[in-house]
Amino acid sequence: MTIRIPEDNILDKILKLVGKERGIIVPEGAEKIYRKYGPNVQIKAKKENFFKALFRKTHNQSEVK
Questions:
Q1: Which parts of 1-65 are beta strand (E)?
Q2: d(CA 57, CA 31)
Q3: Nearest alpha carbon to residue 56 among 17, 15, 6, 27
């Protein structure tokens, strides 16, 4: 399975100046799609909300839900 990650934009650059990063959100059901169609699947991920990433206490991406 290939997960397409969106490219960085100006908001990501602002967060990097502050010392934080945006998390990547994989759509729900990706596991079911993989089981049904196999490894030749491409899924487009989304980025975390800019303001959630900005006001998060740490830059730990494991907190992204």
A1: 2-4, 24-25, 42-44, 46-47
A2: 30
A3: 15
Take residue 7 and report the two structure tokens written for it: 């490219």
Number of domains in the chain: 1
Domain range holding 41?
2-63
pTM beyond 0.70: no
In total, the chain counts a number of residues equal to 65
Which helix (H) or strand (E) element contains residue 55? Answer: helix 50-55
Q: In this predicted model, what pLDDT tens digit does every residue of 4-17 receive, in sequence order?
A: 999 999 999 999 99
Find where tokens 């998060």 sit. 56
Residue with tokens 């006001």: 55
